[in-house]
Write a structure and sequence with these properties.
With about 425 residues, the protein is of the alpha+beta class. The chain has helices at about 20-45, 55-65, 80-95, 95-100, 115-125, 270-310, 320-350, 355-380, 390-400, 410-420, and strands spanning about 130-135, 150-155, 160-170, 175-180, 195-200, 210-215, 225-240, 260, 265, 310-315, 315. The strands form 4 sheets. A 4-stranded antiparallel β-sheet has the order 2-3-7-6, with no helix packed on it. Helix 3 (about 80-95) packs across helix 6 (about 270-310), helix 6 packs antiparallel against helix 9 and helix 7 (about 320-350) runs antiparallel to helix 8. The N and C termini lie far apart (about 70 Å).
Length: about 425
């Protein structure tokens, strides 16, 4: 008796009120690009920890994916966080690193006072010719960015930078490094984040400038580009490269004072704007991470639906067994649930609504879901899942990281609880 035809998994369909014709076309094209251009490269390179080829980056640029959030007057697509996440989900389904590399443009590293310079860089960013790396975390400052100690000291027309940065993805291959550092110490009564500045370190792709060295960090996943530990030792950066704002996606968020040590203060100037822009930009970044996590989990579910039809035991497809069918059903339901939530929050961000709590919730639930669903996918594949012959191990490795970057799950829980529950005077 011939085997029954294997049925392809269903694809997600945009639901009202989000299902505009333009968005459906955008989603369809991103899915095609991911299937035909991204996934074959990932299948070949990821298991060998290979780096993303320049040819793929150039194709991403031609698609316009580095300028989704950049206004059309600068050559971008002029779209919102919703479309950004919609595309990211499809790209992550092929290779999470590709969904991540597009975040290193979108106007990043363009927030200069000089209008002509800003325009030139925005146009390059939209074309994928100004791709950066974000140097935020340090060995002693990860979740607590106010604890950053890398210092930039003014010396004439330059800052001289000294310090260590960690977890800087794409640093060597980048056109620039966006560096969070301390340009002065907080004054009495100011919050700990006062005195922060963001410098754009311009560089040649594939090299580090004098005064900067890097050591690659060997990761278990998230391949496609290298992640670096950076040592700044007298790196000179022009004062003109202190950005006025971070040039990132609009992220919503209240412009409210931070209550630090029971003294409410409001800082002025670029240093205050720097830290606030990072905090607010994390809303969009967290929803973007939720979308990437959904893409990974969805890809794992799709692989399972195919495998459950192809794999035979006891003279039948293992998909006939109710226990496995129910596992697949719950996995698919959780993916759809997380997608609906991130789309709702992305919509709120595009409306300019404050949604720190909602963005943290979307990130928390989607990433924890992705870890569990990709783990279940490994289980459904049995021993075959624990090999590099199948894609599910890649999704599993990459999903594990989503609960850590852009703020750990515990940081998201803190953000959510702080907005739900007041603290007693004893704290």
């Amino acid at each position: 008796m011939s085997s029954p035809t294997v049925i392809a998994p269903p694809v997600p369909v945009l639901a009202p009120p989000y299902d505009t014709g333009a968005r459906v076309a955008l989603q369809t094209e991103a899915r095609r690009f991911s299937d035909e251009e991204v996934r074959p490269v990932a299948d070949e390179l990821d298991r060998h920890k290979g780096e993303m080829p320049r040819s793929l980056i150039e194709k991403l640029g031609k698609q316009g994916y580095f300028g989704i959030l950049i206004p059309t007057e600068y050559g971008g697509m002029g779209l919102g966080v919703f479309e950004y996440c919609l595309i990211a989900e499809e790209l992550a389904r092929g290779w999470m690193s590709v969904a991540s590399i597009i975040a290193r443009a979108q106007g990043m590293g363009t927030g200069f006072d000089d209008g002509a310079r800003r325009r030139r860089l925005l146009e390059k960013s939209a074309r994928g010719e100004w791709i950066g790396a974000a140097a935020l975390s340090e060995p002693g400052a990860g979740s607590d960015l106010a604890g950053v100690s890398t210092r930039a000291v003014r010396d004439g027309d330059h800052f001289v930078v000294t310090g260590t940065k960690r977890w800087c993805g794409n640093a060597k291959a980048a056109d620039f490094i966006q560096l969070l550092c301390r340009v002065r110490d907080p004054e009495p009564g100011e919050r700990r984040s006062a005195g922060m500045g963001t410098l754009v370190v311009e560089k040649e792709p594939g090299a580090f400038p004098e005064g900067l060295t890097g050591t690659p960090i060997d990761k278990i996943g998230y391949h496609g580009f290298l992640t670096w530990n950076l040592e700044f030792d007298g790196l000179r950066v022009p004062v003109a490269n202190l950005v006025a704002d971070l040039g990132r996606a609009r992220a919503g968020g209240k412009d409210e004072d931070e209550d630090e040590g029971k003294v409410k203060v409001k800082d002025k100037g670029k240093d205050a704007n720097t830290f606030r822009a990072i905090e607010q930009g994390l809303n969009a970044a967290r929803v973007h991470t939720a979308a990437r996590a959904v893409g990974l989990a969805r890809a794992a579910v799709e692989e399972c639906l195919l495998y459950l039809q192809e794999r035979h035991q006891f003279d039948r497809p293992i998909g006939d067994f109710q226990a496995l069918r129910f596992m697949a059903a719950e996995m698919a339901a959780r993916v759809d649930q997380a997608r609906a939530f991130y789309q709702q929050v992305a919509h709120l961000i595009d409306l300019g609504r404050p949604c720190e709590r909602e963005a943290a919730m979307a990130k928390l639930l989607a990433t924890e879901m992705a870890v569990e669903v990709t783990g279940q996918a490994m289980q459904l594949h049995g021993g075959n899942g624990y090999t590099t012959e199948r894609r599910v191990e890649r999704y599993w490795r990459d999903a594990r990281l989503t609960t850590v970057f852009e703020g750990t799950s515990q940081i998201q829980q803190k953000i959510i609880s702080d907005r739900l529950l007041p603290r007693s005077p004893l704290c």
